[in-house]
Write a structure and sequence with these properties.
single chain, globular, 2 helices, mainly beta, 5-stranded antiparallel beta sheet, 5-stranded mixed beta sheet
């Protein structure tokens, strides 16, 4: 009877550890493709930067204001090539201007078949895109308000505002290649955090066949 109880306790402990690992998992998007599809449209994966799910309040994902579509912030990466000596991905990162950083500051890091290496950034290009939306701005137009009520009063009205997005495109590479089976590219924002949980995104490819 004791052996059965011990077995049950070990099983519960394993499930607790597994649950913790899932909860701590990084934000990840992935696809599976054949080797001959590397560099094609089928090697493209997309996603949004976010914190880990264990951050206070749960997983936080970058958001857009007003009625602007969320996909203006969508990031993407295409596994561009895998040669005997090099692995490269073409990346596009779209971020609100207030959080914009050069791609090198996102510490692009490849993990290839379990081996990590920091990537170099090549041919980075920058575009700035403005999106209009209706928000509210403070005004000073008041009339007939008692002085006691006016103190600290905030008056707003609808107004057109601009949401500025910075788009960065580049190729990132590492001097590792060969007959690889799994490739992951991690981008982590150095300063954008929620209670020390950084916004980040992992692009992953499984090469099968």
């Amino acid at each position: 009877m004791r052996r059965r109880d011990n077995s049950r306790m070990h099983k519960l402990a394993w499930l607790a550890v597994a649950g913790g690992l899932v909860a701590c998992a990084r934000t990840r998007v992935e696809t599976t493709l054949r080797p001959d599809l590397v560099g094609s449209k089928y090697a493209r994966v997309t996603g949004y930067m976010a914190t880990r799910a264990v951050a206070p309040g749960g997983r936080h994902t970058e958001e857009t204001p007003g009625d602007i579509q969320h996909d203006v912030l969508r990031d993407e990466a295409t596994l561009a090539r895998v040669t005997p000596t090099e692995t490269c991905a073409d990346v596009v990162v779209r971020t609100a201007r207030v959080h914009d950083e050069p791609l090198e500051q996102l510490v692009p890091t490849f993990e290839i078949d379990g081996h990590e290496a920091k990537a170099i950034v090549e041919h980075e290009q920058v575009s700035v895109l403005d999106y209009n939306f209706m928000g509210r701005v403070e005004t000073v137009g008041v009339e007939g308000v008692a002085a006691s009520q006016y103190v600290g009063m905030s008056i707003t009205e609808p107004a057109e505002k601009v949401f500025r997005v910075v788009e960065r495109r580049a190729t990132v590479c590492v001097p590792m290649g060969g007959s690889v089976r799994e490739v992951a590219l991690d981008l982590t924002h150095p300063y954008w955090t929620v209670a020390d949980y950084n916004y980040h995104l992992v692009f992953a490819w499984k090469i099968a066949g």
